[in-house]
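*Target chain*
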Amino acid sequence: MVTWGALWLPIVGASAILLVAGFVLWMVLPLHKGDFRPFPDEAAVGAVLRGQQLAPGQHIIPHMKDPKEMKDPAMVAKYIQGPVGFLVLANPGAPALGKNLLQMFLYHVVVSIFVAYLAVHTLAAGATYLAVFRVTGTVASLAYASATIPSAIWYGRPWSAVWKEVFDGLVWGLLTAGTFGWLWPR
C-alpha cells in the first residue's frame, strides 16, 4: 500500500514542473499570442470604464436581476442591439506576478493531491511506470483540459482560445503523469 507521505515528492515535483511548463506554453511559444484582442480605441474604452468606477470583479452587459426579464421585450431588444458581453476587471496596478505564480503553484498542488488520492486507492507500491502514468494522466488531463470548456459554452470565449487551453491541460496532464510515474514509490 502506498501512503500519502510517500507521495509528497510527486505532488510537489509535478506542481513545480507545471509552473515551468506554463511559462513555456504562455511566454515562450507563440501559441497564446493572439488569444486577447485589443480595443480599437483602448484609451477611450479605458476612460469610459474609469468613469463608471466599476469595482474589480465580473460584470455583464446587458444585466438582468432575474431570468424572467428575458420575457420583457425591452430586455430582448437590449440583447439584439448589443453589445452582449462579460468583462472581468482586476485591481488596478501592475500584475502581481509573485502572488499569481504562488496561486498557480497551489492550484497545481491541489490538483496533484486529487490525482494522488485516486492513485493511492487504485495503485500499489511498485506499480509499473505505465500503470501509474495511465491512472494519474487520465485524472490530471481531465482536471486540467476540461476546466475551460464551459467558458466557451456560457460566456462566449472564443473556441480557438479554449482549444489552446485544452491543449495546455493535456500537456499538464501528461507532465503530471510522467512525474508521478517517475517518482512513484517502488
Residues 34 and 74 are 36 Å apart (CA to CA). Helices lie at 8-28, 42-52, 73-81, 97-122, 129-145, 149-155, 159-183. Residues 4-39+94-183 form one domain. The two ends are 11 Å apart (CA to CA).
